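Narrative progress, year one. The postdoctoral researcher (J.K.) led the effort to move from monomer predictions toward full complexes, under supervision of the PI. The following entry was the first complex the group processed end to end, covering 492 residues in total.
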Amino acid sequence: MPPLTHKVRAQNVNVFYGQKKALNNINLDIPACQVTALIGPSGCGKSTFLRCLNRMNDVVDGCRVEGNITLDGEDIYARGVDVVHLRARVGIVFQKPNPFPKSIFDNVAYGPKIHGLVNNRSEMEELVTTSLEKAGLWTEVRDRLDAPGTSLSGGQQQRLCIARAIAVQPEVILMDEPCSALDPIATARIEELIDELKENFTIIMVTHSMQQAARVSQKTAFFHMGELVEQGDTQDIFTRPQDERTQAYITGRIG
Amino acid sequence: MDNDHIVKSFDDDLSRLDTIIAEMGGLVERQLSDVMTALIKRDVELAQKVIDDDKRVDQLETELDQHTITVLALRQPMADDLRAVIAVLKMSANLERIGDYAKNIAKRVLILSNMEPVGDTVQSIVRMTALVQEMIKNALDAYGTLDIQKADNVRLRDEEVDRIHTSLFRELLTYMMEDPHHITACTHLLFISKNVERIGDHVTSIAEYVHFLVAGELPTQERPKCDLSSQTTLEED
């Protein structure tokens, strides 16, 4: 059993887009080696929050992040933090699968190459293989590693993007609606994969599907209008939420 | 549960479950009061009606089961909706059992109507049943108004029912020992008493699911039990 202390901690986090306050005083602990789901209606700030965790908001014009976010106790917004290194530790998988216009092999090899994680060709082959295996894609692509990543089906492309994220050996994987462009079978495969990945990675996932949050996460945080309304064990959030707004949202009473 | 769902047909589905529970509740209340009247007045026709009415209760339970499965499959209810669906599923099973017990009492009334009365045990049974009827009414009210306090009070009332049953048990044993001619009638009365006691347990279970519906968890406190009939003997003189 990995220690169940928090891997990521957000304290008094405020985020502004220009004058507009998008997140208001968020305090949230993300436990290590578990899946935490962020749910809430569109525009509630859950994706904004997710993007704070690997400083993806840095590149958004007029976006300002206040407060404190730590990874293993270290402030990720501290001066001198290497953002490229941070993003290697905190990987991200997006809503739409976005493989590079390269071969399947090179899609996975790209990250390790630029981060200098391997020394030679055989180490690289081994890393690509294990990453594709962990992403549950290996048996489907082993005999066509030179084919373009874009030749795969949507579900396979998403697993390729997960393999690509895993290849740089991150500690945390952020997922922004990873299944919303996939059919139910491909979705089930990704969910099964997420369940396996949580052995080794801390996973934080934004999802619009309540059922998906219920199926794959151990912790759930509900955001509404820029506030973190309620957080807790997924089982409690979906059977006996304490806040009326959570209740109304997950039962389909407010949009 | 004051706000309506965005998808209005979901509300229709849930209120249909409510309607079925209300009808089942009304029917078993009626069965119980009819069977007591039949017991007092030795009214075989009314007893037969109670037996016939049970078919409708069974039908409603099946209907509710099917509708619940549909709601679970198609709506995937969460939070209080999920609890509402689970609660009605359990409540209807309990109501159906109450109907069965009422029917079983009615069958015994058919037999007892041809026999000599034994003491005033019928009065005790009627008194005990009145308590249980009150409990059913309160449990169903508690469900209708989501009144957790009322539901919890129902649980506590069951103790009294158990106590009357235990004393009836003693009384009937005495009659049997006094005069073996009374054994048949007393045995039927004993089963009636036991049936009413069991109904009390089922009402208690209904009240517990009202608690679950409102609070999100079953009552954790052990409820007091006083049915000592299983340990009761009569001292030989």
